[in-house]
């Protein structure tokens, strides 16, 4: 069975491995993301590809990465965590250096592709993936097709405005894990430089009613996003991925928050977690290569 070298690039780590045509991750590893410039960054990717030189059955290289990605040309148009790679002809350069076919796609789109490939949306023609972590990402699948948009910005839910607070406020400012941490720091009157982990907040909520209320408000923000997406696109499912999906009570909490919206029953859809969790980028990238 043929294999794809899958590379999932994040702001902190690069995850990589071999994925076969059935969507099985055969091996994987990770290393710190190089941020010293485009040349060093591409050299690092070449080193990763060279790890699999002895595999004669490799079809090519497929990359999942954050930002607005021109998937046709393989060019990152905007990438907030990796500014140095913006407008760089990544696909062409890596293909030239490795003599392999290369494809590049947005990371949240890859999550949607992974769920369609072998996850919780294999039988769905219309579904949405929402990734909730440091920021908010999204992938839209309609009429059995991934929606990328005219300027490759489809599914950028982070820019959705869900409420107005001291001027305009977008979704990433009130519904991401970063937003939850900021809300907690504001309540605790902590300096913005103080490190706080999301898990610590959920733990403290068990004994502090005010922290519990902060989390309830945060879930409400996410619920409004889900409501808006469901009312506009009428999907069969909305799948939740990203770091927050590790919480066992996630779907229960979101469903309760949605029930507080009086019109939810008019536009209601099924809510589930994404299946592939940390392997979603690798699997989705492989699927993007196999089914362009």
UniProtKB/TrEMBL annotation:
Highest taxon above the source species: Bacteria
One Pfam family cited in the UniProt record for this chain: ROK
Protein family according to the UniProt entry: Belongs to the ROK (NagC/XylR) family.
Name under which the protein is recorded: ROK family protein
């Amino acid at each position: 069975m043929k294999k794809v070298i899958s590379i999932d690039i994040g702001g902190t780590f690069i995850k990589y491995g071999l994925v076969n045509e059935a969507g099985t991750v055969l091996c994987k590893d990770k290393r710190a993301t190089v941020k010293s410039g485009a040349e060093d960054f591409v050299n690092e990717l070449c080193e990763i590809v060279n790890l699999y030189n002895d595999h004669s059955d490799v079809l090519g290289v497929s990359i999942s990465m954050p930002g607005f990605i021109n998937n046709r040309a393989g060019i990152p148009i905007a990438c907030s965590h990796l500014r140095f790679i913006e407008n760089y002809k990544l696909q062409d350069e890596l293909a030239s250096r490795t003599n392999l076919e290369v494809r590049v796609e947005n990371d949240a789109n890859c999550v949607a592709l992974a769920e369609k490939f072998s996850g919780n949306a294999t039988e769905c023609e219309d579904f949405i993936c929402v990734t909730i972590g440091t920021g908010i990402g999204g992938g839209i699948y309609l009429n059995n097709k991934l929606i990328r948009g005219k300027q490759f910005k489809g599914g950028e839910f982070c820019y959705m405005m869900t409420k107005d607070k001291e001027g305009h406020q977008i979704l990433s400012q009130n519904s991401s894990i970063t937003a939850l941490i900021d809300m907690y720091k504001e309540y605790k009157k902590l300096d913005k430089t103080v490190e706080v982990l999301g898990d610590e907040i959920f733990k403290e909520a068990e004994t502090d009613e005010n922290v519990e209320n902060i989390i309830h408000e945060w879930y409400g923000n996410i619920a409004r996003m889900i409501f808006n997406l469901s009312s506009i696109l009428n999907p069969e499912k909305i799948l939740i991925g990203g770091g927050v999906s590790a919480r066992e009570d996630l779907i229960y909490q979101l469903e309760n928050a949605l029930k507080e919206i009086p019109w939810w029953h008019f536009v209601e859809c099924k809510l589930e977690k994404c299946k592939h969790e940390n392997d979603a980028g690798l699997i989705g990238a492989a699927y993007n290569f196999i089914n362009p």
